[in-house]
Amino acid sequence: MFTGWVKYIIFVVLFASFLELLLPSSSMQRFVRVIMGLFIMLAIMNPIISIIQNHLIPTNQVPALSTNFGNSIMNDSMNMSNERERLSLELYKKELAQQMKILVMAIDGVADVHVNIEINTVKNSSIASGIESVILYIKPGLSAKDRKVAAVSKITIGEQKDKTEDPHIDLKKRISEIVTELYQIPKEKIEVRIIHP
Fold first, then answer.
1. Distances (CA, A) of 165 to 136, 160, 169
2. Which of 51-60, 146-155, 161-170, 177-186 is the least confident region?
3. Which is higher by pLDDT, 63 or 48?
4. Which of 67, 117, 143, 192 could serve as 172's disulfide partner, Cβ 3.0–4.6 Å?
5. Inter-residue contact 23 to 29 (CB < 8 Å)
């Protein structure tokens, strides 16, 4: 290594001397001497520069991450993403049920309501794709008409109401229509059930 370095310096000095002989004597000769001096200095300092570079650049290589560690991170990320989607879906169902409860409670003749919503999800995920069903459990109350002082009811002679008919069918129909209209849910997905106290 040392002999190579010495040979390199000798070669640069000889080349600079040869180049100086070729140049005509003029103001350019000074400039060329400065350049050749810089080359010689660089040739002399080359081993020192390489030693400094070897000390500054670490030779120890950083170990590569194992594939198990990368897979573990990916699995944790997927689990966290699924959990976030599940929580979002639960929050959506809860908020939607609360909105429907407030809406139905405002309907005349409803004393209390409990809403159960089922959401369709994309296969193997928690991403919502639509409402599967809405079941409204209604506790009937007094309507505004019932709260008024009862007037004399109309008496019809000759007609009798069917006693097997659901007395709350109008209420159920009205609730189903309002929920369908406001939430754009098909009627067949909405079920209204009466809770008897």
1. 20, 12, 8
2. 146-155
3. 48
4. 192
5. yes
Q: Where are the beta strands (DSSP E) in 1-109?
A: none
For 162-185, write each residue's pLDDT tens digit. Answer: 556 777 888 889 999 998 898 888
| Strands (DSSP E) found in the chain | 110-121, 128-140, 190-194
**What distances in angstroms separate CA 191 from CA 90, 110, 133, one per listed residue?**
21, 15, 8
Helices 67-105/169-183 angle, 10° precision: 130
Q: Give the model's confidence band at 158: pLDDT under 50 very low, under 70 low, under 90 confident, else very high.
A: low
Dihedral sign from CA coordinates of 172, 177, 178, 180: positive
Distance between CA atoms of 177 and 191, rounded to whole angstroms? Answer: 11
Query: pLDDT tens digits, residue range 111-120?
Result: 889 999 998 8
Task: Give one DSSP letter per residue of 38-90, joined into a string.
Answer: HHHHHHHHHHHHHHHHHHHS--SPPPPPPHHHHHHHHHHHHHHHHHHHHHHHH
CA–CA distance, 129 with 126 (Å, rounded to integer): 9
pLDDT of residue 146 exceeding 70: no
CA distance 171 to 164: 16
Query: In 3-state terms, what secondary structure has residue 127?
Result: coil
Q: What is the pLDDT of residue 82?
A: 85
Q: Who's near 170: CB < 8 A, 6+ residues apart?
A: none
Rounded mean pLDDT, 7-23:
82
